[in-house]
Design a protein that fits this description.
Helix 4 runs antiparallel to helix 5 and helix 15 runs parallel beside helix 16. Strands 7-9-10-12-11-13 form a 6-stranded mixed β-sheet. A 5-stranded antiparallel β-sheet has the order 2-1-5-4-3, sandwiched between helices. A two-stranded antiparallel ribbon has the order 6-8. With about 625 residues, the chain is of the alpha+beta class. A hairpin with a 5-residue loop joins strand 4 and strand 5. The chain is rod-shaped and about 155 Å long. The protein has 4 domains: about 210 residues, no CATH class; about 100 residues, PAS domain (Beta-Lactamase), CATH 3.30.450.20; about 80 residues, Helix Hairpins (Orthogonal Bundle); about 190 residues, Histidine kinase-like ATPase, C-terminal domain (Heat Shock Protein 90, 2-Layer Sandwich). The protein is built from 20 helices and 13 strands.
Amino acid sequence: MLDAFWDKSPLRSVIDSLLFEPGKLCESEKAHHAWFIGIHLAIGALALASLPIVILAATSSLGSDISGLALLPLWMLAPLLSVFYLSRTGKLTNAFLLTAATTAAFIVWIASMTGGLQSPHLVWLGVIPLEVALSNNRKIIKQSLLICFVALGVLSASEATGILHPAPLGEVGLSFVGAMSVMAAVLYAGLLAIRVELLHRGRLCELQAEEMRYRSIADTVSDMITRHDRSGDVTFASPTAERLVNAKPESLMGNGLFQKIHIPDRPAFLQALSDCMNRGESEKQPVTVEVRIMAEEAMSEDLSGEAARGDRLRWCEMTCAPERDELGVIIGVIASTRDISKRKQQQSAMEEARAEAEQANESKTRFLANVTHELRTPLNTIIGFSEILCHPDLIHNNEAKSVEYAELIHKGGNHLLQLVNALLDMSRIESGNFEVAPQQFDIVDLSESCCKMMQGDAEMRGITLFSKNDLEITEAYLDPRACRQILLNLIANALKFSDRGNKVMVSIRQARNKCGQLLDGKIELVVSDNGIGIDKRDIPKLGKPFVQAESSLQRRFEGAGIGLSIVQGLVGLQHGHMVIDSALGKGTTVTITLPLDMATANADGADQQSPKDTSLAKTDATTVTLKTNKVA
């Protein structure tokens, strides 16, 4: 109700009209200017009202000699000059200083006529610093004290040199006026004290409200807000710390946050705080640093039912800004810390995608190089011998030579056909268009027939090829065409990378785990040799299209490098996996683990895909895990 009355009162409109450019003032500044103008207008009005009383009292005591005392209330009109100055310039601190100067001048003038240094009106000099204290400016308060001491010095010097001849204090009129002046000074000082206390309480309430707003913001934002002093220690931590690092804010006080930062990231953290504290006035951009913080996590429960605790590194981004006091001096740092683990994961995924794209580009380059080399050799044979056959004069009706050249052309054509078929198979596997057709068949017979098909090639190379199968395994429900292609490719590789006199063994056996225990429902297709072997550093690269272990084999062997990739794709389509165990100069063993019944394995794999873990569901059917065993 009082606010509504004040908003509608004529005095409010008068004060607002005296404000200097009120549109450019904030609410607190506008309130301080209005208080100054209102109080000084009231003092001026009180001075005019008290003028007749002072003149009457002086006349009754001093007769007609009242020229000096008549000016006693006029010093109270000095605040009107400050109001005029403030309404024209808007400089509140200078207006307080102007009031102090004019008031001190009037007090010296009046004291010079009413007892000099013994004048009771000098008590108003003590009121001046109290009023200037309302400006909340230490510099102006010191200047007002200096003005008061200067006024006393001027009065003392004037009295000592005889320039002034003050009236004696014993006169009744002067005593009455002096008593009234002292009472007015005490009353005004009391009002100033009340006003200072109200101003202090208002500012304290503003600070508390601002702190509450600050804490509300710090409690509601998702980032963790921390305050650091000049030494870097934490003096405040928002409750968001429980979500970010799973720790109470109290545990981060002091160097608690520093202890949770990953050791390699601590120098960057300290450097960011140092850079923020040493920033100049013109530098406005905050300092940002990425650090890893150890967040506590609940682990599995032990037998006593208590949950064990563990630490997990969490990527966080800390944005630091300097905290300044009223004079602009940096007294600390305000930091906002947020979890960027997902962003880091996305960056890692992008890096992996970029690396995969680069590998794909390299694969394309290798493909062009290898396939061009593989196509050129048979094409040269086909073109060269076909040109000879086209000119009968070059063979002189030699039927044996014609048959030999025709056979070479036939072998070159078959080589090209095999290469093209391999490329088509690989492309269909990678695109997911290769369909497997499982059926019941004898996998041992399939293994022995593959050995018979490759026996001629083995004898030409001087290599012993034999099979060693588990006779208890007979029937398997798989794709016989895919299994035949797997065995033929593996046998061809084993023969290619074996020297004369080496041995290549093909075996079908029941699968075992690492402990040697039999695995029900699974079999192993094993092709081993004691040839040149593969360097262990090259094993992880095998199985990728157009990749060969060139570092160890030095490209002494033909091939486009797609045989193992086709094998790997066909194995994955039948829910199996491939393991390569090899050492340079000690031979190679390739183990293919397949289910005996592909339909049952497919159903079991579908049941094991949990709705919470969609990684298997999103994996393409052509994706296969290539495992590498360490060779002792």
